[in-house]
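Q: Could you predict the 3D structure of EspG family protein?
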Amino acid sequence: MKITLSLEELIYAFYSEGLFEQGNALKATYFQELSDEQMDLLLQVTCRSLLAKDYLAYSNHKFMLKPEVAAMIGVLHHADHSLQASKFREGGGQETLSVHLAQSGTYAHFLRYEGQVHVVERLEEGEAAERLGSFFDLPELPSAGESVTKLTQVQLETLLSLIDGQPEELAEYASNLPGAEKQKEKFLQALTASKGRMNTLIGFEFDANNEPIVAEMLMMLGDSSASWMVAKTDEQFFVQTCSKEALVHKLSKTIPSFAHKQGGKVNA
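A: Sure. Here are the predicted structure tokens for EspG family protein:
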């Protein structure tokens, strides 16, 4: 199932589920110029648009979200784990995709029209990996990934600085880094082509107060011809080749519910 909500429809949905903090935050961001009376009128009109989409049911003398819609709104407020993917667009700006892993199911959440429309979709078992692989344009290779090099914070910052200001010195500096020269060269060529910009994938878990805790953070680079991911462990950055299978293998180790939602398809 997939639902598509305008900003005012999402505010209405949050209010309907008692998620007033989330609804008020959207209202303050996008409709701060409206008076309370104007906002009430907007929500009355929004009720009709949600009825037209068959997202509401009339019960106990009031309109309520249908159960399947309410579950999708609830997961935007709380999930066992969430994966937040972000990538640079060729024409400028960034595109995002969230994957929420909850007891009720797995859901994708993304935006359209510069954030004016929210789309929430329930995913089938194992589909989260497909969505993330497509989002990052990862190769379809049967591999858990191969090590390319490892970097300290200073070394990574130096690489990015050289790409930005002294690219002619990059090869010499990289020759002193660990790893096979050919593999390092391919990675640095891609990093130079992107002008040092890398996409990101952050995995969150949540504490008893629903506060997010970072469980995994990856930097992604490349396309379907060749891709890499960079993971930080114990103050070092490990660079390895990446495919859809390699990403699933990595996430299954740090995001338990992700491995579970793959339906046994992950060989962790």
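Q: Anything worth pointing out?
A: DSSP finds ten helices and twelve strands in the chain.
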